[in-house]
Description:
It is built from 10 helices and 12 strands. The protein has 342 residues and is α/β, with parallel strands linked by helices. The longest helix has 17 residues, at 7-23.
Amino acid sequence: MRARLGILLLAAGALATGCNAAANSPGASEGDGPSLVLVTPNPVGVNDFLKLAVTGIEDAASEHKGSQKVYQSTDPASIQQNVAAAVRDKPDVIVAVGFNFADVLAQQAEQNPDQQFLFVDSCTEKPYPNVTCAVFREYEGVFLAGAEAGLLTRSGKVGAVVAVDAPQFHRYSEPFGLGARRTRPDAALSPLFIGGANPFNDPGRAKQLTATLAGQGVDHVMGAASASGNLGVFEAAKEAGIFAFGVDANQCPAEPGVVVDNVIKRTDVVITDGVTAILDGKRGETRSYGVKEEGISLTGLQPDVAQSQCVIADHPDVLTQVGKLRDEITAGTLTIDDPAAA
């Protein structure tokens, strides 16, 4: 992470940072209905996960004939500044995406009990009546990706390169092995964790670990090392002649022919649904989104898979089998345990 700004700069720049971010927000709109503000932890740029969040806030504003704008943060200091600026706007709902907001939302929710917040992809440690949390059951999608790996692996060895060795992030490793064993009972999982001072932005370390797995005979790797970290996973996979899986959005265009599929978090679906719930008075609860709610899916199971540049598009037989597993999860006849709840 970038170094924190000095105290004087924080004080002097807080308002300017918020205004600049809003002025540069993609798709800002005005309407007579409810006002919505999205705060991102990083610049939207080409980040597909955050681009989906912007789509979600735009769709919510359109659906409710309201207005929306986006504050784009760049570091921990600007996250605090932008949330404070959003609170000063007094919108009907403030939407924040990512675990980076846990502390600042808790503080602002306590200080501003009349302000409604939608916290996406995480939740505050303490519940607040004005904080509605929207969390993902990523492990359901990771299981499906693992099922693909089990059907495609030649060595019977699959792996995962994950940012942090913690229960929350085991959701990207353990279900991958479970899914692989569902379709190939003798499949074995080898997980490795990046760790260190910057686990979410260390492509060099991610590349090193992926190469290590390849050297052990692993031929399909789940990459859960954030956007920049996954680039290291993909690069190593390409050099070793093995395959990788992405997360959050379609990462196949980053390495066509290498990335098999992606576990997609439909941030747009979650935001539009969460905003509607808050406006309808369903507030202060935790809403969970998985395969059934279409909050989690695979690129390969989307209608436009043929244009995705994903390897899985060339394996319709595999998609048919994995689609059946998806339907079982949706129907409730197949339940995937949450590693973080163990």
